[in-house]
Write a structure and sequence with these properties.
Elements (H helix, E strand, L loop, with lengths): L1 H13 L16 E14 L3 E4 L3 E8 L4 E8 H5 L2 E14 L3 E14 L5 E15 L12 E12 L15 E12 L3 E15 L14 E13 L1
Antiparallel strand pairs: 1-2, 1-3, 1-11, 3-4, 4-5, 5-6, 6-7, 7-8, 8-9, 9-10, 10-11
Length: about 230
């Protein structure tokens, strides 16, 4: 069971097991706690096609109105002896009152506490977001609004050898993401759909992954919640 879970965790890590982080960076001094649930949709015998229920918790802080630093840990992997951590920053590249572009640079770290094996993957994301539902508010008050976003997530795997001694044939692993966030003064919510690893074959692997692209990549479903401190 542990070997199967580790294989699933490894596949999900390569195909991104969390939604986009801080698509719209926080305000200066703002601090939040985040939680996420979901992953690649897999065919589970006797159940059907469901998102793999990976979970994570994280923290973010606005260094300025344009820059947010963050960190998170994948709690599902941790429960089975695999530490999976994410450290990074989100940067606002351009914005108006109703839309913007942001970029994220993250480092993803995986450590097997039983064997000591470890790996590091850099990640570079870009997202466009469009706000709606903005309500009038007085200066200094927080406001309720929503925004839609679309972007690309890029994982880079510079290791020459994959699991089971196979040569690594894909150094760049892109994914497309489409999501929605409901921003509220204290609690905010997120839903996201990913087209994971569209350049990578999903045939002849341990877990069958349904995909919009048939024998390429996988479909991912994610949900998130954020609490402002």
């Amino acid at each position: 069971m542990r070997i199967l879970l580790f294989l699933i965790s490894g596949l999900a890590l390569l195909w991104s097991c969390a939604p986009a982080r801080f698509v719209e960076p926080l305000q200066k001094g703002q601090q939040v706690i985040t939680g996420h649930f979901g992953g690649p949709v897999a065919k589970v015998p006797g159940i059907g096609a469901i998102p793999i229920p990976f979970t994570s918790i994280g923290y973010g802080r606005g260094l300025s109105n344009s820059t947010t630093v963050m960190g998170s840990i994948q709690t599902t992997s941790l429960a089975f002896g695999v530490g999976q951590f994410e450290l990074g920053a989100s940067q606002k590249l351009w914005s108006t009152d109703r839309m913007g572009l942001s970029g994220q640079l993250n480092t993803n770290i995986l450590i097997d506490f039983y064997t000591g094996a470890n790996r590091i993957w850099p990640q570079l994301d870009a997202n466009y977001y469009l706000k709606y539902g903005l309500k009038s508010y007085r200066i200094g008050e927080q406001r309720n609004y929503n925004f839609m976003y679309a972007g690309i997530s890029n994982w880079f795997d510079f290791y020459r050898i994959e699991s089971q001694g196979r040569p690594n044939e894909q150094l760049w692993i892109p994914s497309l993401q489409f999501g929605h966030q409901w921003i509220r003064p204290k609690w905010s919510y997120q839903a996201e759909v990913k087209i994971l690893a569209p350049l990578e074959s999903n045939e002849n692997i341990v877990v069958p992954y349904p995909s919009l692209l048939q024998n390429r990549g996988a479909l991912g479903l994610y949900f998130g919640i954020t609490y402002s401190l």
